[in-house]
Backbone:
């Protein structure tokens, strides 16, 4: 609607000057300003709060928990919803001010270039189309926030201490959300990921009242992955040519794990003593690294952490990736970490004992070139 009104203004004006630009800015304020969208925000904020609360009620019912919300507590709900609504209005205000500035700049730029009304209209269209997309993105993102906050509120009132992070595991899922999928976090942990974790996030949370065997295995696996990362960092700090006894490395890793807040939470979930679990996972990490990496391989793997590639990612790729024989006779594992939109292509080089000598992050062009040039090695798993 704002595009149409602005276009009419441009086409009916005898000359474009500052007064015309101010009139265009006024039209944008009317169409896209906080007053125009307040009713919409008010409606969808309450709508998604109700949907989130209903979703939470269904999840809790699976555990036999019927949560009845007293009428007096609706006042607290209203206060929370109003805070969320005001946050969204602030975002829209900032957006409309930005739009007005961009429009004024584009029109002035066009005038200085001596552009026609059609060309000026195209400039306006580009700004308003982009703004419509940004406004819709804010709406989608904030709807997810309201939905999950309502659910979290219900879980907390029902006495739940933990929640499970669920992501839409499809091609559009971002790597961070994908890594959080299925993980369990403490409800009262302010550092825990809470959807939305980024614009247009589609993730949600479900309560955890009793841990299933699968969830316990997932928690144990995550604690092992944390231990692996800590152990690799300890080994990477050892100077070249120096030998440090395994017992000393294990002690260092145990100390690091006992201080690691996430590891402490996982130990609590498993109802295990933190020191006892740390000692067990440090020993497991020692064996895994010894069987799968050379010292240089560990050093390279630790360096890749800055690209959000973990030891666990590399080990999974080593196990599932396809093996190729290079011209020099080296065995390489080629694979991809992440989804199709944010892939990280990896090349792992193995020695004769199937240990990782080094790891490289490569671009898509090299990845394809290696696959085309090298001979694929048939393994037992591929024959099956």
Residues:
């Amino acid at each position: 609607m704002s595009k149409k009104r602005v276009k009419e203004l441009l086409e009916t004006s005898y000359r474009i000057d500052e007064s015309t630009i101010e009139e265009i800015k006024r039209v944008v304020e009317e169409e896209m300003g906080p007053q125009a969208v307040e009713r919409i925000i008010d409606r969808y904020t309450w709508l998604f709060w109700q949907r989130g609360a209903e979703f939470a009620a269904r999840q809790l019912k699976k555990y036999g928990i019927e949560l009845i919300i007293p009428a007096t507590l609706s006042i607290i709900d209203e206060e929370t919803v109003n805070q969320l609504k005001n946050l969204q209005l602030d975002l829209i205000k900032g957006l409309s001010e930005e739009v007005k500035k961009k429009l004024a700049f584009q029109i002035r730029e066009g005038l200085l270039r001596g552009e026609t009304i059609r060309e000026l209209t195209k400039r306006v269209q580009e700004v308003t189309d982009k703004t419509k997309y940004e406004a819709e993105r804010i709406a989608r993102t904030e709807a997810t926030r309201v939905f999950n906050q309502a659910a979290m509120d219900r879980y907390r009132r029902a006495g739940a201490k933990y929640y499970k992070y669920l992501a839409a595991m499809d091609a559009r899922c971002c790597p961070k959300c994908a890594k959080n999928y299925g993980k369990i976090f403490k409800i009262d942990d302010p550092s825990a990921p809470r959807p939305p974790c980024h614009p247009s996030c589609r993730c949600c949370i479900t309560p955890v009242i009793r841990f299933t065997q699968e969830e316990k295995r997932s928690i144990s696996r995550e604690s092992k992955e944390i231990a692996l990362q800590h152990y690799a960092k300890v080994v990477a700090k050892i100077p070249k040519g120096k030998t440090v006894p395994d017992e000393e490395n294990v002690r260092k890793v145990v100390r690091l794990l006992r201080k690691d807040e996430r590891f402490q939470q996982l130990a609590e979930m498993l109802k295990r003593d933190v020191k006892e679990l740390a000692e067990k996972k440090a020993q497991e990490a020692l064996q895994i690294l010894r069987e799968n990496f050379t010292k240089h391989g560990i050093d390279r793997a630790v360096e890749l952490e800055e690209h959000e590639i973990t030891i666990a990612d590399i080990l999974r790729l080593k196990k599932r990736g396809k093996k190729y024989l290079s011209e020099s006779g080296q065995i390489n594992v080629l694979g991809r970490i992440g989804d199709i939109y944010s892939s990280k292509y990896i090349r792992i080089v193995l020695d004769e004992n199937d240990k990782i000598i080094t790891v490289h992050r490569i671009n898509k062009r090299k990845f394809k070139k290696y696959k085309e040039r090298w001979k694929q090695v048939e393994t037992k798993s591929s024959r099956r």
